Structure formats: structure tokens, C-alpha cells
Amino acid sequence: MTLLETLARGAGAIAAYAAVGVILLIVGFYVIDLAIPGKLSSIIRSERNPNATLLATSALAAVGLIVAASIWSSGGRLGEGLAGTAVFGLVGIVVQTVAMLAFDKVVGISVRDLVKEPELQPGARLLAVTHVAIGLITAVAVI
């Protein structure tokens, strides 16, 4: 295989993984959007709500960790790697959502209430760390 072929193949793999990663990030964003009252993009952009912003960014960081671990664990097998990345990313999003619902029911930290608060709340910090922790756990499980 020539250098040009190797570079083209690598660039194609990067583009494919990036596409899957972006799709998972968008799915993750809209899952959070479903969990809160109002439109998440508007709450972040117009209302500049720090709680909604922290929850969204932490969830997306967690998805990014899962995607990166899935790519790393693929061992150069592009088709399997892309499928694994998609599946593991979706599992991570589901687990994050279940964790948010569990914290709401068990601990009494409501995402819906948090995003109504104009100031950054301790509960948002706790849920944000939970997102990242779930992302790390899922990422390590993939590896």
C-alpha cells in the first residue's frame, strides 16, 4: 500500500468515526433536551442557564469518552469499530438518562427543577460529575 493510499484510508476512517461521534453527540443533546422543560438550545443560548449548560456539556463529554474508547478498542477494524462505537455510545446515553432519572427519584435531584434556577446549583454539579463518571465507566468497559 502506498503512502497516499494509507493516508486516504486513514482520512476516510477519521471521517467515518467523526460522523458517528457527531451523530451520538446530537442524540445525547436531544435526549437531555427531552429530560428538561423547554428547548435546551434556547435555555443555553438565550437564558444562558448555567445548570442546563453544565448538564449538557458533561453529558457530551461523557459521550466523547465513550466514542474515543470505542475507537481505541477497535484495533483498526473499521466496520466493527464503527458499529461498536454507535452501540456503546447509545448505551452510554441510555445509562446517563437512567442515572438522571434515578437521582431524581432516589436522591430527589430533579433536572427539571435545576434548569429553572438562574444560578449554578450543587445538584447540577453532582449530576455533571455523574455523567462524566458514567462515561468513564462505560469507556473502560469498552476497552
Automatic annotation (TrEMBL):
Cited InterPro entries: DUF350
Sorted UniProt keywords: Cell membrane, Membrane, Transmembrane, Transmembrane helix
Compartment(s) of residence: Cell membrane
Name of this chain's protein: DUF350 domain-containing protein
Residues passing through the membrane, by range: 12-32, 53-75, 81-103, 124-142
Species in which this protein is naturally found: Nonomuraea cavernae
GO cellular component terms given for this protein: plasma membrane
Membrane-topology annotation of the record: Multi-pass membrane protein
Main location: membrane
Family: Belongs to the UPF0719 family.
Keyword Membrane attributed: yes
Pfam families reported in the protein's UniProt record: DUF350
